[in-house]
Amino acid sequence: MSAVHVAGVSKIFNQGTPKQVDALVDVNLTVEPGEFVSLIGPSGCGKSTLLRLIANLLEPTTGSVTVNGKTAAQSRLDQDYGMAFQQAGLFDWRSVAKNIELPLELKGWDKDKRAARAKEMLDLVKLPEFADLMPWQLSGGMQQRIAIARALAAHPPLLLMDEPFGALDEMTREYMQGELLRICAETKTTVVFVTHSIPEAVYLSNRVVVMSPRPGRITEVINVNLGANRSEDTRAADNFFAGITAVREALRGTHADHANAGAIRGVEDR
Amino acid sequence: MNRLRNFLTPLAFGLGFLAFWEGAVKFFELKPYFLAPPTKIMSQFVENISRIWDAASVSGMNALVGLIAGTVFGIAMSFVLSRYRFLGELITPLAVALNAIPIFVLVAVLNNMYSITSEVPRRIMVSLVVYFIVLVNVAKGLTQVKSTHVEIMRSYAASDSDILKKVRIPNAVPYLFTALKISAPAAVITSFVSEYFGGSQNGLGSRITSNIANSKNAAAWAYVLGACLLGLVFYAISVVLENVASRGNGATNTSNK
Fold it and tell me: In whole angstroms, what is the distance from residue A58 CA to residue B235 CA?
């Protein structure tokens, strides 16, 4: 059973009005359990829309979305996934621990069980001493780690992330990427990750889904061959740069052009 | 050291001003019906202290009852408006417009509706002023929540009532304190002013007018002093509320950076 199965999905906003936007057209995507898949593309390509369709925060106009073998709506009700956004979105009036406990409260867990799980999650994101602080006392990177801890608090099999590191500085961002890979490996979580950073997509992913706008669609899916154990050394590896080049070319739509150029030149050379 | 200076400088200025006032009255031999000297006002204040206290209790109670009633109704209505958005769209512009005009003149009309000795019209007037301030602010707090927060709650399959309890109400709390901070001085001012439109002659506002009418200038000033002190009490309430509110807002602001 695949973690996410998107079949023939289109999403049209304001259908039949002058403001009609074809956000997504005929999108097919399957994500296997344990996979890390990134969605990348210029703004307007529908990557965030696709993520929200998987999350059932939006309904597709046509096609179907299946998560863990259930409809997207059912898996949302069952809290089969956790979600993190560019803004950490912590609640200012709740302590760090209480923020992490929020999804558990909504599931009706009792107090002791919630506190124990919050502690476990704080250990996981390596911020155990911050439980009783208020969110605004934390740096941006720490807030985002708490947001990830909250998203994973109920141990969902799937994590959906919408540019979670987009507002962080480069140093923090690379650190967070390493932490995310470690956390996902420890918890065996499947991830669908929206980004517009090419190195970020390549470093994190098993597969990078390249999308293009007007209308939003998937143009290419690139396999990244960096293996399971990635470290800071990975960022200097040849495979890493090869992956970056492949994604960049796919984004520019120059893959085919290159091949043709080579072929034509080949003919002339002869 | 600095705090002491911050306190002493205005105090010295205030005492200097009173001395200048006293000196000017003496030097120019101003008639008491024109301007009473501070010493005379002070002696009138001491002499009438129990009457001033009674009058202040009446005005203060009107302000307090109106403040509480207006807050309760304002909060209740803001929940209704945030639940039924079309009502909000209908009523909010009206509330904002009413907020901008001096509606306390309505007390003259309200006086006609109740018996001449009733405090109810004044209390209703204070309630109305407070009501609109609370309504506009709290409704804003209930509706203007961060979209990320709502999406996160929906991703956890939260119901509308969960979102109300865990997002909208906590978000509205600093807005409520801001509204109370604005309302407290407005309540006491409305309470004084509403006494100028008839009814019992028992509050500070009406005592001031009646003493002026009898050319008891110094006594009128003594009641003005009483009004100042009552205003200070409500101002102190609003300062406390402001501290509570800014603690909430401070949290919001820093996390938005």
Answer: 49
A70 touches chain B (CB under 8 A): no
How much is the ipTM here?
0.79
Of 3.30.70.1530, 1.10.3720.10, 3.60.21.10, 1.10.10.10, which CATH number belongs to B49-249? 1.10.3720.10
pTM for the structure as a whole = 0.77
Helix (H, G, I), strand (E, B) or coil at B203: coil
Dump the DSSP string for A163-221: STTTTS-HHHHHHHHHHHHHHHHHHT-EEEEEES-HHHHHHH-SEEEEEETTTTEEEEE
Secondary-structure class of domain A4-80+156-269 per CATH = alpha beta
Which secondary structure element, helix H or strand E, spans residue A37, and what is its range? Answer: strand A36-40
pLDDT tens, residue order, chain A (270 aa): 788 888 888 888 888 888 888 888 888 899 989 899 999 988 888 888 899 999 898 888 888 898 888 888 888 888 888 898 888 889 988 889 999 999 898 888 888 989 888 888 888 888 888 888 898 888 888 898 899 889 888 888 899 999 888 888 888 888 888 888 888 888 888 999 999 888 899 888 888 899 988 888 888 888 887 777 777 778 777 888 888 888 888 888 754 444 443 334 333 343
Show the tokens assigned to A240: 């890493």
Residue B255 to residue A143, Cβ atoms within 8 A: yes
Distance CA A117, CA A127 (A): 14
A77 with B157: Cβ contact below 8 A: yes
Burial of A166 (0-12, 13-18, 19+ CB in 10 A): middle
- Whether residues B155 and A81 touch (CB distance < 8 A) is answered with yes
